[in-house]
Amino acid sequence: MTHFLASQANANGFKLEDILTVIRADIIKRCDRIIGDNRHEAAQVLENNIQILQLLSQSIRLAEDSTHVLDRSFGPASEESDEPRIGTSG
Fold first, then answer.
1. For 33, which of 26, 43, 59, 90 is 20 to 30 Å away at the CA?
2. Per residue in 52-79, pLDDT tens?
3. In angstroms, rounded to a whole number, what is the distance separating the alpha carbons of residues 9 and 7?
């Protein structure tokens, strides 16, 4: 069973792209708080966060693409069915 992601066992879960978008927003807020800190450590953390933001943006696009593929091929996820759209249950 997944803890955060939507599945048959976790109907109240989230889509991967939604979780990643929230995380990206949190990192942007964190960057905003350290942008004026001129210490070397702050600059290093900011640079790391910028790279992480780029990777998160790529990951969000990939997750959205996967959702579109599943929706286009199998229709939207059904809360009524116990079977996953792809893969095996469990």
1. 59
2. 999 999 999 999 999 999 989 988 776 6
3. 5
Rounded Cα distance between 37 and 87, Å, is 48
Residue 43 tokens read as: 């600059």
Sign (positive/negative) of CA torsion 66, 72, 73, 75?
Answer: positive
pTM over 0.90: no
Q: H helices within 1-90, ranges in order?
A: 16-34, 40-74
Looking up tokens 């927003």, which residue turns up?
25
Joined together, the tokens standing for residue 14 give 């989230």
